[in-house]
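Minutes, project check-in
Item: structure for the 481-residue chain
Input as provided by the requester:
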Amino acid sequence: MPLPVPPDLEAALAAVPAARARFDALAPEQKDAWIAWVGRARTRRGRARRIGYLVQRLGAAPQTETVEEVALPPEPAWWPWLVVLALALIVAGVLIWLLAFRDNGNGTRSAVVVQKGTVPNVVGQPQATAVAAVKKAGLQPVVTKRVALQPAGIVVGQQPGPGKVLKAGAAVHLVVSRGPPPVAVPDVKGLAAADAVAKLQQAKLAPRLVEVKSKKTAGTVVAEDPPPGSKVKPGSRVTLNVSKGAGKVTVPAVVGETVAQATSELQAAGFKPRTTNVASTQPKGTVIAQTPRGGEAAAKRSTVKLDVSQGTAATTTTVATTTTRQTTTVATTTTATTTQATGGGGGGGTVAVPSLVGKGIATALQQLEAAGLRATVKYVTSQTPAGQVRGQNPKAGTKVAPKTPVQLNVSEGPNPGNPTPVPDETGQDEATARSDLQNAGFKVAVVRRTGGGQPGTVVEQQPAAGTSVPTDEYVAIYVAQ
């Protein structure tokens, strides 16, 4: 059965009529030999070359040439190449053996070792240090930067992880922080300076306080720069303008003191006391009312009216006797009436407890001081923000005498610090007290108190000295002015 003529060979022969005629004139076995020779080509290009050779050979053959004379070209000899390849492989193997296991002359053999490096742990290191460590391990650092909470220039990730063994020169990808994202400046206008500072510090900002004259209550933030809502880098400085009052100071609460004590305290605060003797069941010489009331703001060198008890009629006729205590006791049934009568000059001698729940501790303490009341601070367990007042006693609106203590239950926050005894700072100057408390791990809230001690010194603190309070909570110091 003769072999079929392949399509590509058929097309090539059709293009050259002389070759077509010569091919058709070949004996069947000669045709099969040519077709088989073309089919033994190893590549498409080799097949095309063989077809071209066949067409050229047949097309150029003279007409007198016999069929037998159109012989096939000789097949290429592959075995010499195979011999050369085998020799090359043998030589390469010998060279590798000599290099890998050659004798060093001292009885030992050295092997060819592929150099490798162990990936170091560089997370948390500065970029320059991390890059140097990776290069020292014989590896190639590749740095990518992105926004992260860590400071700019710190490595926050790496791939592969530490301990991975790689070929020398392999890439180690390092992710380096561009710094934390910008933060929005919170609105702290109207807050007490201490609460504003805490809010800014919680936002990772650095507050700077500047006292300015203002009609707002002293210690209140009246402006801030940059303005609220501005986007700034964490750690940026925010300037707070804090009111120092419009030339007014807080009037000391002197009801219940002797006239000598009250006069001294008012004069020390810059006021002019004016006394009026009134009938009262209180001990003679006791201040039973004052105008303006304690805690109110008034201009320096202004007059403060004091209603001073002159005792009952019986005691006024026997000034030299020692029956003052007896007289007070006898007249106790008229105390309520007397208080009401004297209320017109001093607001009845009582003040309403302000509403403090939900406010920051610094704001609450300032409001109590302005109302002429005292504070007792107690930190309690709570999930609400640290420093927020969670309860008070007496409750808001209760009428009480000036200087009455009001207990404030203040939140420790969801993550309180370690309990630490509060150091005793009474009698210290403000700067020393601040430093001592901050070194102990506390935040400091300063409340100004008119009179009651040497100006600039701490006359009271809350919580009291020795109380165990979690670190990073507020300790208030009352500084005399």
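Outcome recorded: The chain has five domains: 7-69, 116-177, 183-243, 248-349, 352-480.
No further action items on this chain.
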